[in-house]
Amino acid sequence: MTTLQEIMSPKSIAIVGASDNKARIGGRPLAHMIEQKFSGGIFPINPNRDTVQGIKAYSSLLDVKEDLDFILVAVPSQLVVSVLKQAVEKKAKTALIFSSGFSEIGGQGEIYQSQIKKISKDSGLRVIGPNCLGLFNSATNFYPTFTSTIDRATPRPGGISIASQSGAYGSHIYMVAHQRGLGIRYWMTTGNEVDLSVGETIQLMAEDPDVHSIMAYAESVKDGKQFTKALDTARSEKKPVIFMKVGRSEVGAAAANSHTASLAGEDAVYDEVLRAHGAYRVRSTEEMLDVAYATKPRIFPAGKNLGLVTISGGGGVLMADAAFDEGLTVGPMPEDAQDKLKELVPFASPMNPVDVTAQFFNDLSIVPKFTDLMLSRGGYDALIGFWTSVAGSPLLSKPLLSSLKHAMTGYEDKLFINCMVAPEEIVKTYENEGFLCIEDPTRAVVAMSALMFFGEKFNVNKIKKDFKKNKYFINNPQKKLNEIDCSEILRSANLPIVKSSRIENIEDVSSIYENDNNKYVMKILSADIQHKTDVGGVILNIENIDQAKEAFKKINKNVREKAPKAIIDGMMISPMIKGGIECILGAKIDPVFGPIVMFGLGGIYTEVMKDISFAEAPVSSKKAEKMISSLKSKDVFFGARGQPPVDIKSLIEAIVNLSNLIAANSDWVDQVEMNPILVSENRVVALDALIVTK
How large is the average pLDDT for residues 419-447? Predict the structure, then answer.
């Protein structure tokens, strides 16, 4: 089992393609390690020179008599495979490939990359890249990278590490982190990921005792199981993973088969998977750096009740609005505690935000008194103080810091973020005393929200759902399915589908009508037609036999004209059912993360509102309920404006059963959709059924 230390702390490195020119790709890593005094053995490989940057050079890896742990490859793509074969012969542990010209260009490059993958798999040689910018370990001055950031910003060892699929953006993250004063221990870029991926890098960082927080960047994930395992490891180790996922899929292209395929686009699934496995997804580099910075005290509030203390009423309102946007609670102080605050400052606003007003300038002792009351009586999980530029005043900065230190005595387990504008040297004095300082109040609230997210995830025990696959397994019918076929399969999994009858000719219509008072719907039955309304294949509100016979003729005519190649299996007729909220319940096999179940508003609102929640299947009843309560429209399900709640129990059961069905039959089922599924006070029933097989 590879460890991060084996990759990041080798005893020796050979640089194949080493250059005497410090500015070139093959020269930069050698220059970095010479300047930073890497203590291990360095062996430049260059058949055209006796020395490279003052160090003895060798013609090939095989000419080096010493053991080689790490091989850095900076030669044209057509030479890489032969270099790796030599690396295997030298029994090297790791090879890092700068070279480009592989799968990113296709053709011969794809062939080269497949050969690299085979060498890695067959030999056990760990390969990073190709087409990557390298890595570093700031604690050992190991710099096999050609990034230019090292020249201007020598890394400071710390507890934060960076894993990035992109080299250039990984360098950007490092540079802004350095400018922010963050110590970065490990930095690794993975490029084309022929072997080592961002997911495995997160795993290795999560297992390393010197890492306390992880920043990660990726455009895609190849191995979903490995990726989620890495996130679970980080969560179990209480190490925040601050993740930036970029690249939204063209979901419209996936809409041919079902709404489910369209709505469960790549980005929506990533969003749910990251959240479910405890990684916090950021929307910008600034947010990533704010959150990483805020993890330094290693305090993750377990609740979401936020206390706000401010010298500005406007600043307090701004933070309260930001807290609302983030889903945090800004609970009021207890009334007797409010009375105490009013005794201290009669014209203060004692609710929450607690406004100490300009009296702050006259009597700084009110700061610890207010703060102590908020912490001892308010029940807040964390505090943010808004001091604006006052904290940067040479006259007030030291006494304010002294007051805040006094206020936090006995509350060292509570997180306090200061919103302040001050010179760097003053900010450092606050940080040295354990206080976080973020200039912008909204950014401070967002960072706090992230820490509370981690606090929640770190304190939740992962419950493995008891899933009996055999109970939900269905033999593959080995054919394309029409809607009657789909309905029967779903009904066998205890899913609520309206009962339909099949009619093959117009004479069969008569047997359907036992009660002429009922209204019926007639639909074309064909495995070749999934969107029936598009071909005129649906007629509603059929009241009698004559209308039914007319509908039969009309649907047949419409379909023959608009889908002449479709194989027709007859018609299906079922009772018209009205009343309730139109929803969609679906499932699909995601190519990265496997079975996914989705639920949300359906019918005509499906694509318009896109109020949908997702979860990896199978789900528990608790998770299914959370899917419902996470919707923007959740109140209509639990009772809104005097309306009764829907049959939540049956709805949860339907979500769970569908998730079990897709998980148990993922080898042959690709998509399942029930749209609409009507949900009301006393009934949950699907009016339409679709199963797309692989």
Answer: 95
